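2024-03-11 09:14:02 INFO receiving multi-entity request
2024-03-11 09:14:02 INFO entity count = two
2024-03-11 09:14:03 INFO echoing inputs for audit
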Amino acid sequence: MKPARVLIVDDSSVMRKIVGRSLRQAGLEILEVLEASNGSEALTLVKENSLDLILSDINMPLMDGLEFVRQLRRIESAKHIPVIMITTEAGEAHVVQALSLGASGYIRKPFTPEQIKERVIPLIGG
Amino acid sequence: MDETLNAGPARVQIHLSARAAGAGSRPAEKVTGAAQSTSHDGWREELAKATHEVFEIMVGTSLTSPAEESSPFVADFAAMVGIAGNLCGLVGLHTSSECARKIAARMLGTEELGAGEDAQDAFGEVCNMIAGSFKARIAGLADGCALSVPTVICGRDFTLFSLAKGEHYQVMFSFEGKPFSVTLDLHG
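2024-03-11 09:21:47 INFO inference complete, emitting structure
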């Protein structure tokens, strides 16, 4: 497994730090962590960087996580990037909607590093 | 200054009476273990379970009950998340700024944290996760409700008046010896 360049999208800077720490605790070898506080910022970073993984919240101002995934999948160079939604919105309808828009997986807050590992490692070839 | 805040999609109005803080100013919120209505059997317990879950997983701390549940304390740090949909209401988290900074520090894995955005950010996220965990535990709410982004209020001189006029639930906890409460106010 090559070191991964990861984008974490969350309007909470604390949650971005915790997700990044959880990825390291899960044993993921990280080349770089990029951060965005909403979907719009994230789309800009997607266009400027070669990414291996994206973890995104859903409830965010300006552009939420669902709209971000929808627009992301229209970008040819980003269609292959695994996207995991990390959110408090855990209802089945939310999960189905996120997956139908192109999300690769779903993690409910609060989460453990083990849950991160279970979802992330299979997606990036660990 | 008197303001009416409309908490986004939750349609929960909060009357916020804010005055310049200073010597002799009236403390904001005195939180007590007041009795609450219980027409939804078990909801108070589910709110408590949701809070325990969030603190154990994300803060790395087991909560305890306060030594004397009815003792009032001044909460100058509050976070709120609105619920809208099949259920309309407001989940609140209330404590002292000292306790809020400790919670944020534990979440971030540091010893101490100054008064700044991290404490507000962390406290809002804790409230958000409690609200999410609570609604996931109640049949029909996981898909039937949406949550607002968190709002955090800091300071010693404000009063919250919920206009929900519905049921009020409150659970008191102790975090490393510091009291805090979690509330749920429902629209009538």
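2024-03-11 09:21:48 INFO post-check: Residues 2-187 of chain B form a domain with the Chemotaxis protein chec fold (CATH 3.40.1550.10).
2024-03-11 09:21:48 INFO post-check: The helical segments of chain B are 43-59, 97-108, 117-137.
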